[in-house]
Amino acid sequence: MKIYTVDEVAEVLEVSVKTIRRYIYAGKIGASKIGGQWRINQDQLDDYVRSTSSEHVCNNSCHSEVSQDDFCVFMDTDYFSSEDKLQLCTIIDYYSDTVEEITKLSEILSRVVTEDGVNGGQARYNYVYDQALNRARFVLWGNASFIEKATGLLRPFEGGSHA
């Protein structure tokens, strides 16, 4: 059975090492200390992923299963590096009864993030879908041009109707 370090699990889940340690201390991910270091086996990692299957976060166009409290880590300054003097972060809540609308919105944001020339390839976004509230919460990070372009593409979603 595969045994992971905290760093390896952070890489697999595309979150910070701080997040994994926080999940261990909160009991969200099972782990054992081996030689004074936390280790997570494959079954423990699989259990965590299964337990979070109703929570979905997208970081750039990669999909990983993490929880809503991970937004604070997403915005952690250690996570980002940029040469831009001005960096912005914005939160967008989108309420919808259909996952298809939220998926369409996520795809639009994903295209902007991965577009050549936007924010020098350093733009980021995450989202989490709360099924109980029928809400997707998106967090965008980047320079002013990226934020302006991304939010401009969201205008058709205002008022609940879009093309």
Quick structural overview:
With 163 residues, the chain is of the alpha+beta class.
Residue-averaged pLDDT: 77
Would you tell me which CATH topology of the largest domain applies?
Ribosomal Protein S8, Chain: A, domain 1
- The total beta strand count reads 8
Rg over C-alpha atoms, rounded to the nearest angstrom: 17 Å
Low-confidence stretches: 54-68
Order of helical and strand elements: EHHEEHEEHEHEEH
- What would you call the structural class? alpha+beta
Strand order of the largest sheet: 1-3-2
Measured by DSSP, the beta-strand proportion falls in: 15-25%
Helix content: 25-40%
Q: Looking at this structure, what is the CATH superfamily of the largest domain?
A: K Homology domain, type 1
Tally the structural domains: 2
Shape verdict: globular
Describe the model:
There is one protein chain. The chain has 163 residues and is α+β, with helices and mostly antiparallel strands. The chain folds into two domains: 3-51; 73-160, K Homology domain, type 1 (Ribosomal Protein S8, Chain: A, domain 1), CATH 3.30.1370. It is 36% helix and 25% strand. It is built from six helices and eight strands. It has helices spanning 6-13, 17-26, 42-51, 71-74, 99-114, 144-153; strands spanning 3-5, 32-34, 37-41, 57-59, 62-64, 88-95, 124-130, 135-142. The protein has a three-stranded antiparallel beta sheet with strand order 1-3-2. Strands 6-8-7 form a three-stranded antiparallel beta sheet, covered by helices on one side. α1 crosses α2 (17-26) and α5 packs antiparallel against α6 (144-153). It is globular. The chain starts with a strand and ends in a 10-residue tail after the last helix. Mean pLDDT is 77; it is low at 54-68.
